[in-house]
Request: fold
Amino acid sequence: MELMNGFDTQTTSVGVGGDTRRRSGSMKQKLLWTACAGLSGMLVVVCAVTTAESKPAESATQQEFLKKLAAAAVERTEHVVRYEPGYVGIPYPGGDVPADTGVSTDEVIRAYRTVGVDLQKEVHEDMKKNFSEYPPIGAKPAKRPDTNIDHRRVPNLMVFFSRKREALATTERPEDYAPGDLVTWDLGGDVPHIGIVVDRRSPTSGRYLIVHNIGRGPKMEDVLFDWKITGHYRYFGPPAPQQTSGERN
Reply:
């Protein structure tokens, strides 16, 4: 802006000399704008490349994991499940409510179990060590972890995925959501919901579909932007245990 003001002051003269200086100033101004535009374009390209490079792409193993998770979610739509939000005592680990009942979180839990990840166990292990990091839920919040219900609550899953550094940006761009991603919503009145992005597209919008249970059992629907998105995650399960030198030998 200071350079532009400098050019402007050169155009205040009158007469032939003033006209020449105005044209000269105008040409310099155009050259400056061209140079600035070119520099800005270079900066945008550099920044875009830097951003892309700073976020490592998923490995082949991770891509295969997401593919299998999405397939497991699609398979869940073949099951008849009655929406049942009640508290149920279940075994630990590997516990589940009756197969013909469940809520939105149960479909996520079951899909992950299919690919070898027990969210009941993973959430409980983290809550035991970091209980204060999780939100109080209900009129009488629990004072300690509960393996029967903790992993079945959307707010707890949101904290868990975030703590595992698996949170992604929440945007209104459908291309930012990929098969295997988890999405949470606020249905209104602080009622949380969760679903899994799968590798099937809507024939009308072209968006990836969502497998979720909002009360009619597991369904595959084009509902990504039907409600306010509150979270976006890509969770690959716990890291594989590292082998010791003795085990490698």
